Amino acid sequence: MRPAPLTLVLLAVLAGCWLLVPGCGDGGGEPSAPPADKGPKLEQVFNDHVTVETDEGVRKWVLRSRRMEEFAGQDEVLLIDLTMDFYRDDAVFSTLTADSGRAQPDSRNIHAWGNVVVETEDGRRLETSELFYDNQTRLITNDVYDHYTWPDGVATGIGMEASPDLDYFEIKRSFKSEIADQEPEQGGGR
């Protein structure tokens, strides 16, 4: 028995949808690309991107990202897996790392988020979910939970303002701190 002509047409349409028509599925289990009218259009991608900020020829910071993306109509660029080294006297004094971020090319301000850590060469460490670096004031800030450790203690709280070397560090709200007990001094005489 031969299939009816309508059945053949229906099978051809279904086969065409499966093989040729975007959005019907490609059989590979991968989602199809979003339509071009959804969100900003990706214009350029740079792998292993590096930006160096100098002041009168002196290095202030170096920003590295595994991937930098530029989008149509947006001034900011998206950074993936970023590391930002801060310099003093041509030596790194602290390093910021984060999963992602945005950089403003004109102002050089940075917004970092996702497993953000700032660690100094002398062992102080800030852990948080996001922070902002203002290139003009050279301060880092946020309004989220922060966990700050140094050799003699720990401080936690919500919202902070700090210098990248963590010499200046202020927690804004819900401040809690633990300071390690110091060993009593040993006397040398009787």
User: Can you count the beta strands?
Assistant: 9
| Element-by-element helix/strand order | HEEEEEEEEE
The amount of helix comes to under 10%
Q: Uncertain runs with pLDDT below 50, 5 residues or more? A: 4-34, 184-190
What is the averaged pLDDT score? 81
Structural class: mainly beta
The top level CATH class name: Mainly Beta
> What's the total helix number?
1
Annotated CATH architecture? Sandwich
* Radius of gyration of CA atoms, rounded to a whole number: 26 Å
Distance from N terminus to C terminus (CA atoms, Å) equals 115 Å
Structure write-up:
A hairpin with a 6-residue loop joins strand 8 (153-162) and strand 9. The protein has a 9-stranded antiparallel β-sheet, with no helix packed on it. The longest helix is centred in the N-terminal third of the chain and has 15 residues, at 5-19. It has a single domain (43-179), classed as Lipopolysaccharide (LPS) transport protein A like domain (lipopolysaccharide transport protein A fold, Sandwich). The chain has one helix at residues 5-19, and strands at residues 42-55, 58-71, 77-88, 91-103, 110-120, 125-134, 139-150, 153-162, 169-179. 8% of the residues lie in helices and 56% in strands.
